[in-house]
Amino acid sequence: MAARRRSETMEENRAKLIKAARKAFAEKGFAAASMDELTASVGLTRGALYHNFGDKKGLLAAVVDQVDGEMAQRAKSVAATAGDDWQKLLAEGIAYIKMALDPEVRRIVLLDGPAFLGDPSQWPGQNSCLESTRQTLTTLIERGVLKPMDAGAAAHLLNSAALNAALWVAASDDPQRALPKIIDVFTQLASGLYAHASLSATSAGE
Fold first, then answer.
1. Mean pLDDT, range 130-144, rounded to an integer
2. pTM confidence score
């Protein structure tokens, strides 16, 4: 029982720290957020932070993983209302790009994440998204909806395009103006995979 309670306490502390860090990183940015203020706000010490995450970067990685996972789920929810599987895939990518306008996403995942954690394509959450895209593309290629191609390579390029589009919007001086430009380019690039390009462009624009 004591071991179970210790495990539960660790999980509770971890959740508290992630929640507090998410708020601090969104409001102040990673570099300016004070770890002493953050830990004190949830009644914990720096020791608890180091024990659970190793260091400040480890805490950022945990926050980024949480927010990035939510982004993927939000994109899938939006895409669920689209037409066929190909339209859903395009809608999912576009929904992900649009989240670059969300202040929390922009600051934590798209600006501070790459700056302090390195290449986003190497983050754990991106790997699961990549596999999901690969499976969908494999099915579409087998059905003849898409041109014959390597599904793994296509998934990598499609996901990278959506990710880099979101990064471009986030880094823009005017994200609102940048968004429709990059969505148009993303749609045209992705539509090149379609077996009937003229139909793809029409369906993507609906």
1. 91
2. 0.86
